[in-house]
Amino acid sequence: MGELNTRTIISDSILINIFGQLLQIPTDDVTEEAKLTNDHVEGAVILMERVGIDIDKKISKIAAKRMKEEKEGKGLGKKDKQEQQFQRIFNRFSEIIDTENPNQKIENRIKLLIKNMLENRKDNWSKTQKKADAGPKKVEDVRAEVERKHAQAAAERETDYQNERYQSQGSYYDKRGGKQGGRGGDRGRHGRDY
Predict the structure, then answer these.
(1) Where are the alpha helices (H) located in 36-188, listed in sequence order?
(2) Which residue range is the domain that position 122 belongs to?
């Protein structure tokens, strides 16, 4: 759904309805609150991570247009219905985190997902932009990365092998009576100082 919205294949009103159903946002028609499920809230968070940057851009455009009309004296500065609906969605996410409703058992994991999403929003969706900018890797990049990892692993194996050889040689010479630290002097085969 998020990809369809970013490509403007589905309208914002459909997206608002999807969020309304996932988050059980009461509307004029429905006043009683239905039971939230962890799966629905998690789906709403994932969807918001995908389309949140576009929603905030739309809210900013609407607010700028309203401010311009207000300065020109054309409008009363009244909030747009769509802007209010999007704001209600973000408010609903905050409500889910803040309230402890015994009828709705939302897992802490889901609440952390919501907090991360809201922090991402405060940071102007920087995490989402990084993911979008990265895009899929090219085949050449994947091959180069695999070769680099193999070379690194081979270098680590060689280093480990050299370290084991060095340690085993050191213990071999110590057993045969080579120089040993400790009490001083050179010890011979029989452990006597010469």
Answers:
(1) 38-72, 81-98, 108-122, 126-134, 139-176
(2) 2-135
Q: Are 52 and 41 in contact (CB under 8 A)?
A: no
As a whole number of angstroms, the distance between CA 17 and CA 23 comes to: 10
Least confident of 43-57, 97-111, 162-176, 179-193: 179-193
Q: Is 192 part of any domain?
A: no
* Domain membership flag for residue 141: yes
The distance of Cα 130 from the centroid of its chain, to the nearest Å, equals: 10
> Per the domain annotation, does 187 fall within a domain?
no
pLDDT at residue 178 in the model: 52
Alpha carbons 128 and 61: distance in angstroms, whole number: 20
Tokens of 89: 């969605």
Number of other residues whose CB lies within 10 A of the CB of residue 18? 19
193 - beta bridge partners? 187
Please tell me the pTM assigned to this model: 0.57
Same domain for 130 and 144: no
Q: Does residue 57 fall inside a structural domain?
A: yes
Total number of domains constituting the chain: 2
Q: Higher model confidence: residue 36 or residue 144?
A: 144
Q: How far apart are the first and last CA of the chain?
A: 85
